[in-house]
Amino acid sequence: MSRTPRTNLRRAGGLATVLVSAAGVAVAMAPSAAGVPVAETVKIGTATSLSVMYRGNGHGHGMSQYGARGAARVGLDYKQIVAFYYPGASLVSTPRRMIRVKLAGTGATTTIVAQPNTTVTGVSGYLSVTGVRRYRLVADARSGLSLLRLASAAGSKWTTIRTGLPNRAEFHRPSHLPTRVIHTDGTSTDYNGYVSAVRTSGGAVMTVNRVGLDNYVAAVVPREMPASWERAAVDAQAVAARTYASSVIAGVGSGAEYDICATDQCQVYGGRTHYAHDGTVLYTQFAQAALDTSYKILQYKGAPAFTQFSASNGGWSVDGGQPYLVAKADPYDTAQRSLDPYIDVTKKVTVASIARYFGLAKVTAVSITARDGHGTWKGRVLAGSVTGTDSKGAKKVVPADGYDFAGVFGLGTTWLKVLTPAA
Question: Which of 160, 225, 251, 354 has the highest local Cβ count within 10 Å?
């Protein structure tokens, strides 16, 4: 299945990133007020709306996903693509390992579909599927877990069949068979590996999938980049995702209950197959990219690189604070070469919404005073201000940075230019 490149200005990891945040792992730095001084002031006059032109989508650190596509379209293989976007990092093979993923949308219990050959920690043999629809692990009255069963008959209620199971008990099916987890919205997902219930301090449980790293990557790739894109680009995404996860694992403390989350706050992890309420397949993993690059990661000085990536850098990457995350021109991320839809796009917002955003009654001018100096318009916005009046009519100048301008215009990038309103 394919997925639209992700967009998120203040985090890192997906098809459009600007900061860093894999499972809470890093947080992108705010733009420095240093850079190239510029003097760009747009006076509002009687205009009721203001337009902005922008380039890119995401923080621009590391790999541009559209750029990777552009590189693949001109013949680069995945090794060449990651070498371009993470210069100085070495492509190596990492030992086989498991990763613990905190699943989203599972509520306060761990609920699965009753399927043949399912085991659970603390119970001998396979769980019965005869006349059974679902099984569930919940926190018990002490410090362990209780196993509940829901019969297939209409109107059946949950019944407890075992108590005192150990915390972190796992559902599992042998021979690489997946376990189907039920989400609170009625959808369900097949997960490879082990599905465990971990007690929280509030007496509920969170659901954690303990899965092999390559299986994890197979389920991340199509949620972060369309699997229909050129294979070299998708394979480069697999390496970036595996390395990103490996860097997260390396930074997790010994007492943590999971390594990474499954949402866009980390990397989007979709499991093996995801189903709608009626059982219709909504999307699946893309195993081929994981197999093409099996256990390959990027390393810098013996440790996994922090391989940030974003949807589009607009033609120029941003310094990410690491020797292998450098600011440089990107010849592959162009509208013609990569089919990037985030190049020189125009968006309009009302002047009233700008005033509300900056706490003003009226806006009279928007100014940009510093950019990073890279590329069109002298690069991304670092500093500026919005001039107007408050509710009492007093003049106010509100300082702003690139993230403020991105926020008020609803953009996933700080590379923008405010356009003069038509007379």
Answer: 225
